[in-house]
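@channel sequence for tomorrow's demo:
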Amino acid sequence: MKNKQISLFSAILLIAIIVILAVSTVFLMQTDKINKQYEVEKAITPTPSLAPPQLYAKATEPLLRMGSISNEVKDLQQKLKDLGYYDGDIDGQFGSGTKNAVILFQKQHELTADGLAGKSTLNMLYSEKAHKIVVTPEPILPDVKKEELPMLVNRTTPIADNYAPDDLITISSLLDEKLAIIKDEGEKASKVAVVALSEMLKAAHADGLTTWQISEGYRTMEEQKELFEKRKAEYESGEETGNNMSAEEATKNATKDVAPPNTSEHQTGLAFDITVPGKSFADTKQAKWLSKNCWEYGFIIRYQLGKEHITGFNPEPWHIRYVGKQHSIFMRDADIALEEYLQLQQNKAN
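structure tokens (generated this afternoon):
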């Protein structure tokens, strides 16, 4: 009888060890995947905006996010509802409705609009500084001709093979060197965009933010193709995942990370990647200033949080696109992406 008990105990102990090893393996695989995604961004953009996230918040750092279920989420929902930001159920489940309410609250309180209820957001929410939602009048859609609308370039609307901006200039020929570092000598962009960029950076300097870097401007089709093919090869060879892929599978996976040729906004000459040397841009004062003020100079934050299903790209707070003031200000006030704006214009024309 005693031997049977020992055998049973040994079996249970063995099962427990197997379970622990399995969980540890999954955790390490998730961490490795996150780090690889970070390295992809690091290779594509001069200063990556996101460092590999911790899978779990520290006990001393409260963090409520998508998927959180707790009484703390209930309190969050109730407070957001009291202030007019949330109109859903108080169920303690942090879903898309709660996330959107958090983003709206963050925007109206000049916080990083990431949809995460962390320490700074919670402190503001439960402080005397938290104010009720400010409802602005519905903006009026600009009345413009079709040819005056901004160009759309994305994964489903590629640019023509032979397209080339007709007003390309070297950025340094028009932008005062005191306003920003130009990462690559000879970097080019559309003249109208460079003029607007210069005015915007002058305003930023006047506000005390003097460190900026232009990390990317115009990109040729060949340059975009080279970036994409390099990423595709990493998947195809197994360098990225450890397993070889077919050309079709590699192409599908590479498309999630890098815009295929003729689908990058950089090919328009109207887009810039704005960074701060040596820093994660999303965490800088420059990023907050850009997000708040770029619209006044005809720029938009092209790939915003919460618009991924529309734009097809993950959020890129460093990527701005020149569209013109009448368009950018409406998009800001209506909180819509370029695709949504052009759809409104099309509906109006019809």
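heads up for whoever presents: The chain has eleven helices and seven strands.
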